[in-house]
Write a structure and sequence with these properties.
The protein is α+β, with helices and mostly antiparallel strands and about 400 residues long. The chain is built from twelve helices and nine strands. It starts with 6 loop residues before the first helix and ends in a 6-residue tail after the last helix. The structure holds flavin-adenine dinucleotide. Flavin-adenine dinucleotide binds next to strand 1, strand 3, helix 11 and helix 12. The site of flavin-adenine dinucleotide has 19 residues, from strand 1, strand 3, helix 11 and helix 12.
């Protein structure tokens, strides 16, 4: 029997990365394998993530706000950030969500749209994992169409009064700071809200069957009084939150393919050792057809992610290209997770193996940061010139 090649070798993927990128990738992979992988099934089953502890460790390896410059942030390339997302999501989408929300949604919003005072106050602590951030855009009645949001901020003397409810907010109950988007007389504005401000509460959402190793919460804003200095001065209109979402979607392009890789590697290992009808499952043509087809999609997903990473590093990536990557890689990843589950048979439904956990997680990944349908509409608009959102 010949020695099997790895997925990386099949596509010569490492030939597309430089030595620094490989070193960063390997650091994150080693951390993920040593520190996260041994515990993840329990964290998922118990729906309890030691998020503060993990955030500090992620800060120590430079994974928080990784592609941001200054203010204590690591200042690495977009591709390096993507590779980190890939390795973290190969363990669990919940861990990558922690990193995406912290770095791409909360920190990026403050870094890109914030005042010097806001940046100095929050970014160094957030990069170190000493402060956790969340990003409140979605509401109970407004997910895909955030322009309809009802959360509002009204001027009251020199202050702002913030009222409303946000829903499905990652890191909400554990956050020290929330970036909250609200309607104002000046259009949609972003607010940097310390979570100990009176009137702010964040009840956790329970009974989730997906992203159980991730904190998801409601944000309740009941006459939250904020000074003028809480407004993100450079963001006005929906462009503010949508630009930040583009950053997080970019990480998902890499992350989802990490989950798919982990499923396929697990399925290949399983098929090589599982005997059915007196020989290894891997020796059957039907199994090999599944494995070969999935390997093509995992490989193509990597190539797409790397290509989009290079475009982003050159400052050339467009929102439609981000949609293309997010739609393709999440959709293929969830198909792969389900197909791998078939190879594992009944064992595939347990947390002894990562496959069903990835499959369940990917249901959320398919929905958040723009559903598949919203990305189809974005690509459709780009190609036809017709907007079909309403
Ligand atoms: C685990 C998890 C974590 C999340 N974390 C965050 C977070 O940190 N911050 C945050 O702000 N949000 C967060 N979200 C919310 C997420 O972004 C929304 O769930 C998502 O935008 C979809 O909104 P919705 O659930 O209200 O679905 P809806 O918008 O109600 O969509 C329902 C269905 O209708 C489809 N649909 C909508 N519009 C159209 C259309 N024009 N044409 C055709 N079909 C359409 C959708 O594609 C979908 O299939 C999170 C969600 C989950 C599940």
């Amino acid at each position: 029997m010949s020695r099997p090649s790895t997925l990386t070798q099949l596509f010569a993927l490492d030939s597309l990365l430089d030595a620094d990128e490989i070193a960063i990738r390997d650091t994150v992979r080693d951390f993920a394998d040593a520190r996260l992988r041994p515990h993840i099934a329990d964290w998922f089953e118990d729906a309890k993530l030691p998020a503060r502890e993990i955030a500090k460790e992620l800060g120590q390896i430079g994974a928080l706000g990784m592609h941001l410059e200054g203010y204590g942030c690591p200042g690495m390339s977009a591709t390096a950030y993507g590779l980190a997302c890939l390795e973290l999501e190969a363990v669990d989408s919940g861990i990558r969500s922690l990193v995406s929300v912290q770095g791409s949604l909360a920190m990026f919003s403050i870094h890109h749209w914030g005042s010097e005072e806001q940046k100095n106050e929050w970014l160094p602590r957030m990069a170190a994992g000493d402060a956790i951030g969340c990003f409140g855009l979605t509401e109970p009645d407004f997910g895909s169409n955030p322009s309809g949001m009802r959360t509002n901020a009204k001027r009251d003397g020199g202050d702002w009064l913030l009222n409303g409810t946000k829903m499905w907010i990652t890191n909400g109950s554990i956050a020290d700071v929330a970036v909250v988007w609200a309607q104002t007389d000046e259009g949609i504005r972003g607010f940097v809200v310390p979570t100990d401000t009176p009137g702010f509460s964040a009840p956790e959402i329970h009974k989730k069957m997906s992203l159980r190793a991730s904190v998801t919460s409601e944000l309740v804003l009941d006459n939250v009084r904020l000074p003028e200095s809480a407004v993100l001065p450079k963001a006005q209109g929906l462009r503010g939150p949508l630009t930040s979402l583009g950053e997080a979607r970019f990480g998902i392009i890499f992350g989802a393919i990490g989950a798919a890789r982990d499923c396929l590697e697990t399925a290949i290992d399983y098929a090589r050792s599982r005997e059915v009808f007196d020989k290894p499952l891997a020796g059957y043509q039907l199994t090999q057809a599944k494995i070969a087809d999935m390997a093509l999609e995992v490989g193509k997903g990597h190539l797409l992610a790397y290509h989009l990473g290079r475009l982003k590093d050159r400052g050339e990536i467009t929102p439609e290209q981000v949609s293309t990557g997010k739609l393709n890689n999440t959709r293929e990843a969830i198909k792969i997770a389900r197909e791998c589950r078939t190879i594992l048979g009944a064992n595939g439904i347990t947390l002894e193996y990562p496959v069903i956990r990835h499959a369940n997680n990917l249901e959320s990944v398919l929905t958040y940061e723009g559903t598949s349908e919203v990305h189809q509409l974005t690509i459709g608009r780009a190609l036809t010139g017709e907007a079909a959102f309403r």
